[in-house]
Structure to design on (304 residues):
């Protein structure tokens, strides 16, 4: 479990954040952020004031990354890239999350290493992480300013034979009682969204098409929703293209793997972050996933 409780002792009365700075070797803002998140407690009471004082013994909840041996696919002085497996969280959802990609990155490259963007838990493929705070700020800004070009591979239903330029606004649902607490839909009041789709190979025996998806904007579930909207849903998608009951059961973790396979045609979402292209410190980079996505697709479409 990456989150553990440490027993610490402050011999004299002092600012709690100053003690954490000295004890853990972190910055003032990081120490105050951890206190504000409720990581420090004494005699069962959580410290609420990030400028408060501490003296004597107290408990501190800290993140100690673990490794399962996942190796980076690309390493540079300022950043690294990992090929994330489908099903692995990028960040821990809470203190009880047993393992995430964040573990591997911080275990290997240290406390200051941090992920610079997100992909869904169900999506596999490239995740870019900074190795220091300076490169983290730079890379996050590059993602925000669209200076990093991302491309994905997806296996979709049907024969998609012509390139598509999908420009449909996307709106996130806020109604907690509706189908999906986190679904996105095409809606005229949504945010402008654009995805370029290029068909790569049609497999007539399965009536599926391998496509390249290049999102110009970065909305949540954008590729999934856009492909569903044009009636070529991604195989293995447990949300888009499913009836309300099964989508909710998936979100509540009540849907068995056998039911999911029967409903969606695969044991996982067949969407993969394939490449990243950008210029960093005047050097062009084109990072390409080393995974054989087509093989992963046919394995996931095979009934066990």
């Amino acid at each position: 479990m990456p989150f553990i409780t440490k027993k610490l002792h402050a011999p004299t009365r002092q600012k709690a954040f100053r003690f954490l700075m000295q004890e853990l070797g972190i910055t003032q803002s990081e120490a105050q952020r951890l206190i504000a998140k409720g990581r420090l407690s004494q005699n069962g009471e959580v410290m609420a004031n990030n400028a408060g004082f501490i003296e004597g013994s107290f408990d501190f909840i800290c993140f100690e990354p673990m490794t399962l041996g996942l190796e980076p696919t690309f390493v540079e002085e300022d950043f690294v890239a990992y090929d994330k497996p489908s099903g692995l969280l990028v960040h821990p959802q809470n203190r009880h999350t047993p393992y995430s990609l964040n573990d591997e990155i911080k275990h290997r490259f240290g406390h200051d290493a941090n992920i610079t963007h997100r992909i869904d838990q169900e999506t596999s493929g490239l995740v870019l992480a900074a190795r220091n705070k300076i490169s983290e700020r730079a890379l996050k800004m590059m993602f925000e300013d669209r200076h990093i070009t991302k491309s994905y591979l997806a296996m979709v239903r049907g024969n998609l034979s012509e390139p598509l330029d999908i420009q449909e606004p996307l709106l996130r649902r806020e109604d907690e009682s509706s189908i999906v607490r986190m679904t996105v839909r095409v809606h005229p009041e949504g945010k402008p969204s654009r995805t370029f789709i290029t068909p790569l190979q049609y497999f007539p025996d399965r009536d599926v098409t391998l496509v390249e998806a290049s999102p110009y904007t970065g909305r949540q579930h954008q590729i999934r929703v856009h492909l569903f909207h044009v009636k070529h849903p991604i195989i293995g998608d447990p949300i888009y293209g499913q009836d309300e009951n099964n989508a909710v059961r998936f979100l509540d973790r009540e849907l068995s793997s056998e039911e999911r396979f029967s409903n969606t045609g695969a044991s996982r979402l067949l969407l993969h972050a394939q490449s990243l292209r950008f210029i960093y410190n005047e050097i062009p980079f084109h990072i390409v996933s080393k995974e054989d996505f087509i093989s992963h697709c046919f394995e996931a479409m095979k009934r066990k």
Summary: The chain is about 25% helix and 30% strand. The first strand starts at residue 3 and ends at 15. The radius of gyration is 22 Å. The longest helix spans residues 133-144.
